[in-house]
Amino acid sequence: MDTIPFLPQDSLEQQVARLQALLEAARHVHSSIQVKDVLQETARILVRELELSGALFLMPGASEPVASYGDTLAPPYEGCGRFPLFSGESHQLLAELVVSMPDSGEYSLYEQDFIEGLVLQTAVALENATLHERDLEWARVQQDLDAARLLQRSLLPRAMPDIPGFSIAARSTTCYEVGGDYLDTMTLPDGTHLMVVADVAGKGLASAIVATAFRAAVRSQSGHNLSLEDLAARLSQQHWSEGGEARRRYMTALFLRLDPAQHEIEMVNAGHNPAAVSLPGGELRMIEASGPPLGMLPGMTYAAERFAFPPGARMLLYTDGLTEVFHGDEEFGQDRLVETFRNTPCPEAERVLDVLWDTLGTFSFHEPQTDDMTALAIFHLAPESLRAGDQTCMKSGSSVQVRLPSELGFEKVAMSTAASMAALMGFSEDRIEDLKTAVAEACINAIEHGNQLNSSLSVGVVLSNNDDELEVKVIDDGNGVRQSPHAPDIDRKMHGEEDPRGMGMFLIQALVDEAEWHQGPPGKSFVRLVIRLDKENQECR
Amino acid sequence: MQVTTKVSERKASTASGSPVTILSFAGDISSASKDAILNAYHGLNGSTSKILLDFTGVDYINSSGIAIIIQMLLEAQKTGSQSVGIFGLSAHFQKVFTMVGINKYAALHKDEASALAA
């Protein structure tokens, strides 16, 4: 019979020595952050400290030991001691220690205690090492995704075709690092332009791989002088032939061929959202799908539509990420998207895409996007908007009204609306920043002082464009705000002699061309701001 | 509906080697930022003598937010030993900070490098 540790017959020195040995062993085990090193160190300590012949570690699901020390122990490890290592929180089996028995055929109580104590310490170290390995793995995946994102961005067209009399712009934003939307333009040898907008089922990395493969297929087939119908049919069949995994990632696509000389467009819609064509005179034409998505079914054929695209016409190709934007349960939808596109008066395609993205951001209260968003806008410019030096993006007398909940934070909705309107009128970015701050301060005053933070009231914002000036009226439902036009005194504020608040009104006056406050009965109190276009520095992006 | 302010603290040193504490703000600087900003400032080690405020990650600042920055500058001034610098503001907000006179109490720098070189 071995001596039992920590009983009176053990000297205090012996007990201290054993505790020190365990402490020292634990310190060694915790000194590494590598899974294999942790287990190797534990096996070594056990064999050396307890003078056993061998020890090894098995991991769940692996037949070979992950670490061992001393004599080779062989399965089924008869006559060996086995000790499971569990994770602290989930009680999940991390590994199992197999250790040889001493010659006596059983462990002494001291040996049993030492092994169990060390197994507990090793489980903690092993869990830390496993988490560390996972962190490293995650960092590697993140690096891969970053590289994939850069690559995918680099495959977008660097510039839109520069065709006299046309304004063409495209935009693609992904909801994850990489996306399954594809956008491309190619100039063909006959002087026409092939443009493609496609959306692979799903999103993220798998869809991005399919989109990239699809790009290569489109680019190689586009050199074969095929009709759009044949191009779509061939790409569909080719994708379907790739097998089941690819078929699950089928894609909807729009193929468009623009003939600028003939003012004509030819299009094939393969299972995609309808493209919107707005013609001068007000006619709206939707180009609906003529067949299922590409790669979904074998042997599919598609029909092309050909139509005139005269000066003043504009067209929008988009993926469903632009219509499936939500505010609560309410979807932005195709009708609103098409109406916004048609009714934005600016003839610059790029600016109209700005307005679409701003409008969608405002609609969703700038929630992170939940799908990839891609759009291509083609404008055949009407002659009057071609005249240099006479570019106003917005008709005089246009007016926009917004009603905000009387709650701090909603001033940003007024800011972005005012910024969109000012951009359409051709204000410079500096002036737009001035306007945004002035409008935000006017709204904050209306919410805090006019409406006294009463959240059942609201704030009205009316933006009107008169020739070269933009007027913004911010109307509260309370008793208005008294004008106190004195500049803030920073020295007095810094000495605590003046309320550090009350700067809003000063900023408004300093940032816009005109500012006046009117007090009246509820609903009739307002602040009126005016900023004017500086003709010298006018810009219409 | 107000966006919360995130404040993170890191250490740096000036070109001449003296230690600097940088408080980086992200999100909006508005009336909702009071606790985040003042708690971060109060949490600084009492011996911190040079503080830089990093606005690089800030998209929106309003007058209520500026008032909180002024309150912090006021407290820093009262210690008699702390100096505060500001960097990372857009050109527009550099103009606004100058309009309200903050530049008299905190030097405005374009970016971190020029703030540390100063």
Radius of gyration of chain A: 35 Å
Order of helices and strands of chain B: EEHEHEHEH
Could you tell me the mean pLDDT of chain A? 87
Oligomer: heterodimer
The portion of residues assigned to helices of chain A is 25-40%
Radius of gyration of chain B: 13 Å
CATH architecture grouping of chain B = 2-Layer Sandwich
Counting DSSP H or I runs of 4 or more residues, the number of helices of chain A is: 12
Given helix and strand content, the structural type of chain B is alpha/beta
The strands making up the biggest β-sheet of chain B line up spatially as 1-2-3-4-5
The CATH H-level homologous superfamily of chain B: STAS domain
Sheet with the most strands of chain A?
A: 5 strands, antiparallel
- Could you give the count of β-strands of chain A? 21
The share of residues in extended strands of chain A comes to 15-25%
Of all chain pairs, the largest interface belongs to: A-B, 32 and 27 residues
Beta strand count of chain B? 5
Largest sheet of chain B: 5 strands, mixed
Helix/sheet category of chain A: alpha+beta
Account of the 3D structure:
- The complex is a heterodimer of chains A (541) and B (118).
- Chain A is α+β, with helices and mostly antiparallel strands and 541 residues long.
- Chain A has helices at 12-29, 35-50, 109-154, 205-221, 228-240, 244-248, 333-343, 349-363, 411-425, 429-450, 490-494, 504-511, and strands at residues 54-58, 67-70, 81-86, 93-99, 166-173, 181-187, 193-200, 251-259, 264-270, 275-278, 284-287, 305-308, 314-318, 326-327, 330-331, 373-380, 399-405, 458-466, 469-476, 514-518, 525-532.
- In chain A, the strands form 5 sheets. In chain A, strands 5-16-13-10-11 form a 5-stranded antiparallel beta sheet, with helices on one face. Chain A has a 5-stranded antiparallel beta sheet with strand order 6-7-8-9-12, covered by helices on one side.
- The radius of gyration of chain A is 35 Å and the shape is flat.
- By secondary structure, chain B is α/β, with parallel strands linked by helices.
- Chain B has one domain (6-117): 2-Layer Sandwich (Transcription Regulator spoIIAA).
- Chain B contains 4 helices and 5 strands.
- Chain B has helices at residues 34-42, 63-79, 91-99, 112-117, and strands at 5-13, 19-29, 50-61, 83-87, 107-109.
- Chain B has a 5-stranded mixed beta sheet.
- Chain B is globular.
- The relative contact order of chain B is 0.18.
- The model of chain B has no long low-confidence stretch (mean pLDDT 91).
- Chains A and B meet through helix 10, helix 11 and helix 12 of A and helix 2 and helix 3 of B.
